[in-house]
Amino acid sequence: MRLHTSAEQAARSTWPSDGVVETVDERASLLRTRAANLDVLVVHVMLTGVDCEVIEPQELTDHIRAVRDRLSRALDPDRAATAAPGAESAPV
């Protein structure tokens, strides 16, 4: 994942167990990480606290979009009522 912050700042906002931070330039870094499943990777993305872009895997990008949509529906009940067929919904 490409983080839109320096490696120095990224190292302060991640745990060593999150992965390896590499310098790209003074304004960007890479976080190389792995996890047991896509949900854990989504949490890694959210907990960095910085803007980022997923480089790979494509499945993570798709999963982040699905989580984004689910959270949007949670904030907008009218949208949830008109969610696309097959959209996951479960009581919380």
Record keyword descriptors for this entry:
single chain; 92 residues; alpha+beta; 4 helices; 4 strands; 42% helix; WCX_dom; WCX domain-containing protein
Structure overview:
The protein is of the alpha+beta class. The protein has one domain. The protein has four helices and four strands, in the order βαββαβαα. The chain has helices spanning 7-12, 38-47, 58-75, 77-81; strands at residues 2-3, 20-25, 28-32, 52-53. It starts with a strand and ends in an 11-residue tail after the last helix. InterPro entries: WCX_dom. Residues 3-66 form the WCX domain. This is WCX domain-containing protein.
In short:
Helices cover 42% and strands 16% of the residues. The protein is an alpha+beta fold and 92 residues long. It has one domain (2-81).
Low-confidence stretches: none
Number of strands: 4
Structural class: alpha+beta
Provide mean pLDDT, rounded. 86
Please bin the fraction of helical residues.
Answer: 40-55%
Radius of gyration: 15 Å
What order do the SSEs take from the amino end to the carboxyl end, as H and E?
EHEEHEHH
- Profile the largest sheet: 4 strands, antiparallel
Spatial arrangement of strands, main beta sheet: 2-3-1-4
Domain module tally? 1
Q: Please report which band the strand proportion falls in: under 5%, 5-15%, 15-25%, 25-35%, 35-45% or over 45%.
A: 15-25%
Distance from N terminus to C terminus (CA atoms, Å) equals 30 Å
- Globular, elongated, flat, extended or rod-shaped: what is the shape? elongated
What is the tally of helical segments? Answer: 4
